[in-house]
Protein backbone atom coordinates (compact mmCIF):
# COMPACT_ATOMS: atom_id res chain seq x y z
CA UNK A 1 0.00 0.00 0.00
CA UNK A 2 1.33 3.42 -0.97
CA UNK A 3 -0.01 6.97 -0.83
CA UNK A 4 -0.15 9.43 -3.70
CA UNK A 5 -0.76 13.17 -3.88
CA UNK A 6 -2.36 14.96 -6.83
CA UNK A 7 -1.07 18.42 -7.71
CA UNK A 8 -2.73 21.34 -9.43
CA UNK A 9 -0.97 23.61 -11.96
CA UNK A 10 0.76 25.45 -9.07
CA UNK A 11 2.02 22.22 -7.44
CA UNK A 12 -0.52 22.54 -4.63
CA UNK A 13 -1.84 19.23 -3.27
CA UNK A 14 -5.54 18.83 -4.09
CA UNK A 15 -6.07 15.23 -3.00
CA UNK A 16 -4.20 12.35 -1.34
CA UNK A 17 -5.16 8.72 -1.98
CA UNK A 18 -4.12 5.24 -0.94
CA UNK A 19 -3.06 3.24 -3.99
CA UNK A 20 -0.97 0.42 -5.32
CA UNK A 21 2.51 -0.17 -3.99
CA UNK A 22 5.20 0.89 -6.44
CA UNK A 23 6.50 -2.69 -6.56
CA UNK A 24 3.12 -4.01 -7.83
CA UNK A 25 3.14 -5.07 -11.45
CA UNK A 26 6.09 -3.14 -12.85
CA UNK A 27 3.93 -0.05 -13.43
CA UNK A 28 5.02 3.50 -12.65
CA UNK A 29 2.03 4.26 -10.44
CA UNK A 30 2.78 7.99 -10.21
CA UNK A 31 2.40 8.20 -14.00
CA UNK A 32 -0.58 5.82 -14.10
CA UNK A 33 -2.56 7.64 -11.38
CA UNK A 34 -1.57 11.02 -12.84
CA UNK A 35 -2.83 10.05 -16.31
CA UNK A 36 -6.02 8.51 -14.89
CA UNK A 37 -6.78 11.57 -12.72
CA UNK A 38 -5.54 14.20 -15.18
CA UNK A 39 -3.15 15.79 -12.69
CA UNK A 40 0.50 15.41 -11.79
CA UNK A 41 0.83 12.67 -9.17
CA UNK A 42 3.63 12.23 -6.63
CA UNK A 43 4.10 9.42 -4.13
CA UNK A 44 4.15 10.46 -0.49
CA UNK A 45 5.12 8.61 2.68
CA UNK A 46 2.62 8.33 5.52
CA UNK A 47 5.58 7.66 7.83
CA UNK A 48 7.51 10.87 7.03
CA UNK A 49 7.14 14.16 8.92
CA UNK A 50 9.68 16.94 9.43
CA UNK A 51 12.03 14.96 7.18
CA UNK A 52 12.12 12.09 9.71
CA UNK A 53 10.78 8.58 9.08
CA UNK A 54 8.74 7.44 12.10
CA UNK A 55 9.90 3.82 11.79
CA UNK A 56 13.58 4.69 11.50
CA UNK A 57 13.61 4.29 7.74
CA UNK A 58 14.66 6.78 5.10
CA UNK A 59 12.44 9.88 5.07
CA UNK A 60 10.64 10.44 1.78
CA UNK A 61 9.78 13.86 0.33
CA UNK A 62 10.07 15.75 3.61
CA UNK A 63 6.50 15.39 4.86
CA UNK A 64 3.41 13.31 4.22
CA UNK A 65 1.43 15.38 1.72
CA UNK A 66 -1.66 17.17 2.92
CA UNK A 67 -4.28 19.10 1.01
CA UNK A 68 -2.95 22.62 0.57
CA UNK A 69 0.70 21.57 0.85
CA UNK A 70 3.05 22.55 -1.97
CA UNK A 71 5.27 20.08 -3.77
CA UNK A 72 8.67 21.71 -4.30
CA UNK A 73 10.63 19.95 -7.05
CA UNK A 74 13.82 21.86 -6.16
CA UNK A 75 13.99 20.02 -2.82
CA UNK A 76 11.74 17.05 -3.80
CA UNK A 77 9.53 17.66 -0.77
CA UNK A 78 6.00 18.43 0.32
CA UNK A 79 5.93 21.72 2.22
CA UNK A 80 3.07 22.69 4.54
CA UNK A 81 1.54 26.15 4.13
CA UNK A 82 3.70 28.92 5.58
CA UNK A 83 2.10 29.92 8.91
CA UNK A 84 3.39 33.52 8.85
CA UNK A 85 5.31 35.60 6.28
CA UNK A 86 8.30 36.01 8.61
CA UNK A 87 8.84 32.27 9.10
CA UNK A 88 11.49 30.45 7.06
CA UNK A 89 11.77 26.86 5.89
CA UNK A 90 14.60 24.87 7.46
CA UNK A 91 16.50 21.88 6.07
CA UNK A 92 14.03 19.48 7.73
CA UNK A 93 11.15 21.06 5.76
CA UNK A 94 9.73 22.70 8.89
CA UNK A 95 8.70 26.37 9.13
CA UNK A 96 10.71 28.18 11.80
CA UNK A 97 9.86 31.51 13.45
CA UNK A 98 12.45 34.30 13.49
CA UNK A 99 12.41 34.14 17.31
CA UNK A 100 12.49 30.84 19.19
CA UNK A 101 9.43 30.18 21.32
CA UNK A 102 10.16 30.27 25.06
CA UNK A 103 10.18 26.91 26.79
CA UNK A 104 8.30 27.13 30.06
CA UNK A 105 4.86 26.28 31.48
CA UNK A 106 3.03 28.95 29.43
CA UNK A 107 1.11 28.54 26.19
CA UNK A 108 2.23 30.96 23.47
CA UNK A 109 0.82 32.43 20.30
CA UNK A 110 2.87 34.11 17.58
CA UNK A 111 2.25 37.84 17.02
CA UNK A 112 3.34 38.53 13.44
CA UNK A 113 3.09 42.32 13.61
CA UNK A 114 5.45 42.50 16.61
CA UNK A 115 7.32 39.31 15.74
CA UNK A 116 7.10 38.12 19.33
CA UNK A 117 5.60 35.26 21.28
CA UNK A 118 2.64 36.27 23.43
CA UNK A 119 1.39 34.31 26.44
CA UNK A 120 -2.11 32.95 25.86
CA UNK A 121 -4.36 33.41 28.88
CA UNK A 122 -7.22 31.02 29.48
CA UNK A 123 -9.37 33.36 31.54
Could you explain how this protein is built, in words?
- With 123 residues, this protein is mainly beta.
- It has two domains: 81 residues, no CATH class; 41 residues, no CATH class.
- It is 7% helix and 33% strand.
- The protein is built from one helix and eleven strands.
- The strands form five sheets. Strands 2-1-3 form a three-stranded antiparallel β-sheet, with helices on one face. The chain has a two-stranded antiparallel ribbon with strand order 4-5.
- The model has no long low-confidence stretch (mean pLDDT 94).
Lay out the secondary structure.
Elements: E1 2-7, E2 13-19, H1 29-37, E3 40-44, E4 48-49, E5 52-53, E6 70-72, E7 77-79, E8 88-89, E9 95-96, E10 108-111, E11 116-119
Antiparallel strand pairs: 1-2, 1-3, 4-5, 6-7, 8-9, 10-11
Features:
11 strands, three-stranded antiparallel sheet, two-stranded antiparallel sheet, 2 domains, 123 residues, 33% strand, single chain, 1 helix, mainly beta
